[in-house]
Structures are given as structure tokens and as C-alpha cells.
Amino acid sequence: MPASPDSPSSADATVYRRELIRPTLYRRMKWRVETVGFAVFEGLLGGLPLSWVARLGRGMGVVAYGCLAGRRKTVRRNLRIAFAGEKTPGELDEIAAEVFRRSGANLLCSLCTARLSEAALTEAVEVRDGAIFSEALARGKGVVMVLAHMGNWEALAQWFPRLLPQGVEGATVYRPLNNPLMNARVAAQRRRLGIGLFSKDDNPLGMASFLRRGGVLGVLSDQRAGNIGELVPFFGRVTSCTPIPAILARRTGAAVVGISLRSLAAGRWELRFHASSDEPTTVGVMALLERMMRESPADVFWLQDRWKISLYEPHRQPGKKPRGGAVFPTKRRRALLWTEASGKAPEPIAAEPADVDYEAGGALAGESVSDALRRIDEGMGLPLDYVVGGGALVRDACRELGLGWMEGGA
Known about the structure:
Structural class: alpha/beta
Strand order of the largest sheet: 1-9-8-2-5-3-4
Low-confidence stretches: 1-16
Distance between the termini: 58 Å
Number of domains: 2
Strand content: 15-25%
């Protein structure tokens, strides 16, 4: 059975559990203020037509795009990696701006979607390719639904019970919120809908048992998985990806089905099912996820640093070799060997995995280190990931620009 969301077995963790057991007065007050503020804001939005809320959210996205330079940089870097060689810098800038606008609209709309009537929800969500889901259910071995942070996620939560035939259970894997009052509120909403909850840190054996009973389990699969993930290509770039959907499908025989949400108009979305034609491996799951996200890149929440660089060990990628052995990427990482005016450059450092192309370069006459790094970074479709050598001056410039840096030997 799903673990109670009021007592999450969170791995990231110790501080969160300690705060739950012995929260300070400040922490308790902060939780209450956040929860009350959220409830008031949700109530105000609930009184507006969904199309108005979407337009308000788009306006907030415009403001966020102008103010949040760091997030803007993250979105553009993600898009450069995902669409290198496919889209021009101008096209990427346009998509990045639209990502902020749609993220604002989807976020605000998600706050009031739970209050929609049956008729309003039907009007707001158009379902396509439902036969794919029906055929997967007909196999009788459960269904793993692969999801991305894409579109109005609350609309999907509201539609989820409608998708399930009588007697079929539905559940999702979730990350407990840091605010336990908010966490209990969201969990209660899901329970009222009849949706079970598994913490992302629960034992997968419970999830497997749920699938063997014919259940449908939704798994958000687009975020970094760290050391527990498998190193497989995602949009052609090797990164740590969650192995959970593939593992569960192999162990239980469950079908793998993708589900996406894209914006059709202000306050309207398309919910679409996607069949998986690959073997249940992490490589196959990520290929399915990529195919879904490509249908509407502007609806994807690119604000997370998906291909994050370790500032101190940028040559190492956290994660494990995938099932079937290493898979070679089509988009390799870029690293710069900082070359002094004398022509002296450090030696390349062996990367793990070996997916790095080293190039030599440095500052031109009259050019600052930061300007040189920006020029080199923008000189190719893929962004620069890290720099080797150059000393403290280059190190500080790398930190300023969000690049990794390593001290190099001669």
C-alpha cells in the first residue's frame, strides 16, 4: 500500500525529518503562514475564469523572464543541449521566453484546476489516443505511466481517476513537500480523488506489488537521478536518469505508456497518450520521454538544471552504467584547456564517462577572462561545461558564469 504522506520516508532527508519531529517556533509559524497564504490565493484564483488565470500567469512569466537572470540562463542552456544543431540561437531565445510565459500560466492554472466542475474540466482538457492506454490496461499486468513536468499537471491529476475503469487502482510516485501542512493538504486532495501515493524513497517492492494487482502508477521521470540513476542519453547527452519505470516494468510485466500535456489555448490543454515501442530499459523510457517533450518544448518546465555541472568535479557524471552496458551519446560534453599567451596549456583530464571533447583556447588581447569564456561558450551550438587550468582568475570567472573548473597540470 502507498506510504502515508504525513510520515514520508524522505532520503534527502535528515533535516526534514528532524524538523517534523521537533520544529522550531519560527518553522511552525512559517509553515502556517505559507499554508494560509496558499489557501487564500487559491481561493481568489478559483473565482476567475480559467482563461483569465492563464493570461495572468503568462504576464507573471514575462516579469519572471526579465527578472530571473539565473533561471533564464538555465533554461537557455537546457534548450541549447536539447536542440543543438536543430534550432538557431534566435529560435532558442523565443522558446526560452515562451517557456517562462507558459510555466507561469500552467502554474497559476494548476492552483485552481482542482475546483473546476466536471463540465469545466471536460471543456479544459482534450484527450487524444486513449486507445493506447486502453490496450495497455487490457494486458492485465498493470501500467507504468511515464510523465514529465509538462503543462498543467493538476489537470492531469484531476483527469487521472476518469481514465481508470471500475476496480482499477491509480497511484503516483511523489516527493513529499518540505512544508508538512502543505504536504498533508495536497495528499488529502489526492486521496479524495482516489489516487494513492508512494514516496519517491519508498521500497520499490511495494510499487511492484501495486502493479501486479493491475494498478496504474504514474512516475515523473524527467529530473536528475544522481548516484542512483543510470547514465543514458537524454536528448543525445548522457545524464543520470531514473531507472524506476524500467525496473518496475521488467519485474512485473507492466506496460509502459507515456502521457503528455500541451497548451492549446489560454486555459485549454491536450492530454495525449504515447505508446512505447522499445524494450523496458532506461534508454527506452528516456527515448519515449524525449519524444513526448519534443511535441511542445515550450510547455516543459526547463527551469531545473537538467544537465547540471559539478563545480568541483565537472569531469565526473554521477550515476551507474545502464542495463546492457554503456551507451554512447550523440552530444558530447565540451571542456576547455585554458591556454596561456605563451601557448602553454594543461593536459586533458580523463572524464567519467568518457564523453568529453577537449579544446584549447584562452583570452584574446584586450579581452577579459569572462568575455573570453562567453565567446568560447557561444562559439558552438552546445554550451561549454568546464575549464581546466588558468589559475584563480579563471576559476573565479568560471564560478561567476556557472561553469565547472579544475586545476590542471602542465
